[in-house]
Amino acid sequence: MQGGTLMKWFTTAGLAALMTVSAPALAAADSPERVTRGNLVMENIPEIPSGVRERLRQYQNVRSAGFSDFAPDGGIYITTRFGETNQIHHVAAPMGARRQITFYDERTSGASVRPDGSGQFAFTRDVGGDEFFQGFLHDPATARSVQFTRDRTRNQGFAWSRDGAFIAFASTTWEDPDYAIFMGDPADPSSIREIYKGEGAITPRDISPDGSHMVIGRYISINETRLQLLDIASGEASPINPDVTAAYGAVSFSADGESLFVVSDEDSEFRRILEINLADNSQRVVTEHDWDVQAMDLSPDGALIAYTINAGGISELHIIEAATGAARPAPDMPTGLIGSVSFSADGSKLGFTHVSAGSPGDAWSYELASAELTRWTQSEVGGLDTSRFQAPELVHYESFDGLNVPVFVHRPEGDGPHPVIISIHGGPEAQARPGFNANFQYWIHELGAAVLVPNVRGSSGYGNEYVNLDNVFLREDSVRDIGALIDWAAAQPEFDADRIVVYGGSYGGYMVLASLMHYSDKLAGGINIVGISNFVTFLENTAGYRQDLRRAEYGDERDPEVRAFLESISPANHAHRITAPLFIIQGANDPRVPLSEAEQILAAVREAGGDPWYLVAMDEGHGFARQSNRDFQREAETMFLTEILGLE
């Protein structure tokens, strides 16, 4: 397919980085041999005993099903995995068989059904984790999928017109920081044309009921999004609420097209639902809570709004009348997470995904008239006894400056003292939430380890003040939160102070490296997955379309003062302080955190006398998506943890 050329470019670049950046490390007399097994490149990783592989197999074969959309025939579309990667499946009836629709080696997104009754649906696919997502239209009548986006582009924000006549999306290239808006009939790729060239990370948010206008959102930072109203015929865009700095989540036109329902934090510490009159930008508050509103969908007739709130990490689903905000009956779901909330085309049902501590994720629907709740899938859990999978306890600990930091505590059976694995989320504005995690369950039940999952300052979900506490020159305050958690854990009699490990990916990988830099004397080791090792080289080498977005969070490395600060806190510049064992894991095609970030921390730690474990997947990007690669990653992680924690 067209992605092959792009994949070759990324793989070649990744291979060059492997050969070039690591040369000093490999030249050392005591450096380990670099071994290649298929698409995996590794150092220091021992042979995996069959017993480890077999015990992990059950946990690794846990599957989930995510709701995508309602199918015109009365069934639903879901995404799930029965091979290497997630693919689109059709389920004709509740608890019925899953019929696979797409059969790619690469991961696919969920199906977005064309709202014209044709049964066609759009989906996206990238190659080797490069995140250059291409749009495809699948026609069930022919069982064929046709690409409608341009080669060598990254595409996002796909939105159908109400009648399904056209689809709109944003597109850019590797080095271009600015996106353009395209639209046309995806069944006729030659009809796709550029209608607007914007600035920054713009994306279609919704299309008016009559198809004449489009709302475009430009994401600047977690605290700021700019909305514009685009006249599709003229190509002219006008700002919405231009004098206000606010963040916007979901956006939907009202049924008459004269106003917008938006999720926003304007004049509020938390995100709520507002209605904005497009004629004069006047507003009314539709609903608000003491927590963030997250997902939102408007019924096709504009009468109802379904939305979720994030109550300290737990999802709550609500249904209200759009005109009055009055509550309507909503399903009472078990404690967990709810996502992909979507009304059916006729507005009679609501579909969504639900995840809990004992369920890895399944598709559900709710009939509004009868209040009937239906479970469509029951995903496999590898034969494991899910009754042992208990929800974690939410506790708070005091950080260095008195800030109370929330942490989810997963405890194994027995009195301990238990080894501890601190799992740090990425983002940095993400939020750790208590859903199903097979990795955690393996650590708890097979390794006997407690798992601590903090939401350090800078995490979303706790208000605007909290999310901004780690910006730019405050970056290491979040690392100090981990230091305080290490001390808190060491003071608990149920935990073993001499066996504490840090684990994290992306920004969480940076946090692992920074924690090892500051607290190696208190840690048994750390596992860094696709982590930033130097903020300056990261900002200079991340994909061009991402640079300004990341500068808004980390600071602009082109400013001398900011550059000096970023260099001063970057782990690659202080590798001599990383004395605890380290495992580095990376995808060669990662467009976010380039392979060079992993190679330079590997070389720096080796030069300082360390001996890290190292694993690169040549066919992966920002994290491992292929099942076989994930299997090996977990096996290698288990060997590393077993060694540094002194487990049998």
Write the layout of secondary structure elements.
Elements: H1 3-20, H2 23-27, E1 34-37, E2 40-43, H3 50-60, E3 66-70, E4 76-81, E5 86-91, E6 98-100, E7 112-113, E8 121-125, E9 134-139, E10 144-147, E11 154-160, E12 167-172, E13 180-184, E14 193-197, E15 201-207, E16 213-221, E17 224-231, E18 236-240, E19 248-253, E20 259-264, E21 272-277, E22 283-287, E23 292-298, E24 304-311, E25 314-321, E26 327-328, E27 337-343, E28 349-356, E29 359-367, E30 372-375, E31 393-398, E32 404-410, E33 418-424, H4 438-446, E34 450-454, H5 464-467, H6 475-490, E35 495-505, H7 507-519, E36 525-529, H8 535-541, H9 544-554, H10 560-569, E37 582-587, H11 595-607, E38 613-617, H12 627-644
Parallel strand pairs: 33-34, 33-35, 35-36, 36-37, 37-38
Antiparallel strand pairs: 1-2, 2-38, 3-4, 4-5, 5-6, 7-8, 8-9, 9-10, 11-12, 12-13, 13-14, 15-16, 16-17, 17-18, 19-20, 20-21, 21-22, 23-24, 24-25, 25-26, 27-28, 28-29, 29-30, 31-32, 32-34
Helix pairs in contact: 3-4, 3-12, 6-7, 8-9
